[in-house]
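Can't paste images in this forum, so I'm doing it all in text. The chain is below; anyone willing to post the predicted structure tokens underneath?
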Amino acid sequence: MSNNTSGRFSVAGKVIVITGATGALGTAAAKALASEGAKLVLVAGTRDKLSILSEELSGQGAHVLAISARPESDEITRSIIEQTKKHFGRLDGVLIASGVNDVRLASEFPVDAWQAVMDANVKSSWLMARAAADQFMQQEGGGKIVFISSTRGKLGHSAGYSAYCPSKHAVDGLTRSLACEWGRQGIQVNAIAPTVFRSPLTAWMFEDTERGINARTGMLARIPLGRLGEPEDLVGATQFLLSGASDFCTGQIFYIDGGYTAG
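Text version of the structure:
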């Protein structure tokens, strides 16, 4: 094992799949990892945004494969991994950043809408991880899987999160279960759990409207560092979990939340 600390954090040359690549976190991660020399497979259902991101990173010299798809079936997830293997020859890591939220009171939540959140956040994560693990087990060196959870996997919410909270709690359980199941095959499975960070879905909380100020004030009262998150706040932990620096780390939920869950 090298004593070069900075080298342990390197992702240069690593082949990494990012699902939800055009979301706020996926885009920030893609740009950060590309700047560090990673070879990226960008997966997203938003074809136009995917094309723009792929062209931007390719124009900067990054090695990028873009796949317009959502990881919602066994056939699709296995195709993503097969295309990755065909294009780059191997797979080193997967960042599963795709997911949804649907805020409704439990008494008003249609069953199919509730199930859609569970499918997008839990089933798709499981399918993508399983397809990646199959590839990891066929090559030397194993691989790394990083889920995106949330502080809502640990904490409830009174404003209509009866689908989102249990879905992220399930992602936490999936992280620990798969870490135990696949550890002997050299596969590390971890999750990043942010609090509110800036994205198209949360932009209103950053605005100086009455609604935004009220929501932001309530959140900031619980965050010791005194601010909401930015997508860039999450990329350091992402790189750590996809690099050799995390080789002895698995089954962990990393709260990137400004201290929100500490008190």
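The chain has a mean pLDDT of 94. Strands lie at 15-19, 39-44, 64-68, 93-96, 143-148, 187-194, 253-256.
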